[in-house]
From TrEMBL:
This is Release factor glutamine methyltransferase. Its EC number is 2.1.1.297. It comes from Buchnera aphidicola. It holds the Pfam family PrmC_N. One of its GO terms (molecular function) is nucleic acid binding. It catalyses: L-glutaminyl-[peptide chain release factor] + S-adenosyl-L-methionine = N(5)-methyl-L-glutaminyl-[peptide chain release factor] + S-adenosyl-L-homocysteine + H(+). Belongs to the protein N5-glutamine methyltransferase family. PrmC subfamily. Substrate binds at residues 181-184. Methylates the class 1 translation termination release factors RF1/PrfA and RF2/PrfB on the glutamine residue of the universally conserved GGQ motif. One of its GO terms (biological process) is methylation. The keyword S-adenosyl-L-methionine applies. InterPro entries: DNA_methylase_N6_adenine_CS, HemK-like, N5-glutamine_MTase, PrmC_N, RF_methyltr_PrmC, SAM-dependent_MTases_sf, Small_mtfrase_dom. The keyword Methyltransferase applies.
């Protein structure tokens, strides 16, 4: 079977999905170990039966709603390529806003803590840009820590360190900046979210108290682990800006402000420790 025929077949199968051709090309790229550009240039190339069978197996997984990133174990974030698996959330473009604003607040030799690091996307993106800083990523999932360490090695980033901690349970140091993309969906939202999200770790997505419980916990306890004038940056839901700002104020942060993501939704709030 030739490439163009298999791609056309997959596009018809995935007609209900937002990006059927992109999905098909990513899956085939993974199967034959060629770039999407190569696939489009040499679309008359004859595939082996083994390649076609493997492609169709992966296509079936995609048809069942499984995210492409989990099928090919890869996701781009901050122009870096990360290994991902079912043990970690899939890094999303809106979270790059968190990295961008963190970088704007950092100085040379600062210490950064990433709470709930997952595959290490936030930690490693910051470490990649700030080689003189030290970034510490924690997670309460041992598999996630292994994956983050794997990504650090793959990307040859040596100023990021990963270890187990249930939020601040194993933290003894203070930091210039704490950053987190915690669970912030409320349980009622599971009836409205994309089918793909059901493949991601439940505890990394959903939180109690209408999605605010983990954010509230982090903001309250961060004071103890920040240097004076240190910063806390939190990603949150599009409709949580006001409540998150109130929690920052309640916990004696100042210079509190929120920023929108690429789609214009309120996505992160940050604040500075007074004293």
């Amino acid at each position: 079977m030739k490439i163009y025929s298999l791609i056309d077949y997959a596009v018809k199968i995935l007609y209900n999905y937002d990006t059927p051709r992109l999905d098909a090309e990513l899956l085939l790229s993974y199967v034959i170990k060629k770039t999407r550009t190569w696939i489009n240039i040499f679309n008359n190339f004859e595939l082996t039966n083994k390649q076609v069978v493997l492609f169709k197996k992966l296509l079936f997984r995609r048809l069942n709603g499984e995210p492409i990133a989990y099928i090919i174990n890869k996701k781009e974030f901050w122009s870096l390529s990360f290994f991902v698996s079912k043990y970690t959330l899939i890094p999303r473009p809106e979270t790059e806003i968190l990295v961008y604003h963190a970088l704007n607040l950092l100085n040379k030799k600062d210490f950064i803590l990433d709470l709930g690091t997952g595959c290490g996307a936030i930690s490693l993106s910051i470490a990649f840009e700030m080689l003189t800083c030290k970034v510490f990523g924690i997670d309460n999932n041992h598999q996630a820590i292994k994956i983050a360490k794997k990504n650090a090695k793959k990307l040859n980033i040596k100023n990021a360190y990963f270890f187990y901690s249930n939020w601040f349970s194993c933290i003894k140091e203070k930091f210039n900046l704490i950053v987190s993309n915690p669970p912030y969906l409320c349980k009622n939202e599971k009836f409205y979210i994309s089918q793909e999200l059901f493949f991601e770790p439940y505890n990394s997505l959903f939180a109690k108290k209408n999605g605010i419980s983990e954010i509230e916990y982090i903001i309250h306890h961060s004071q103890k682990y920040l240097f004076v004038y240190g910063w806390l940056l939190i990603e949150h839901g599009w409709n949580q800006k006001n409540i998150v700002q109130k929690i920052f104020k309640k916990n004696n942060f100042y210079n509190i402000r929120s920023y929108k993501d690429y789609l214009g939704y309120n996505r992160i709030t940050l604040g500075q420790k007074k004293y």
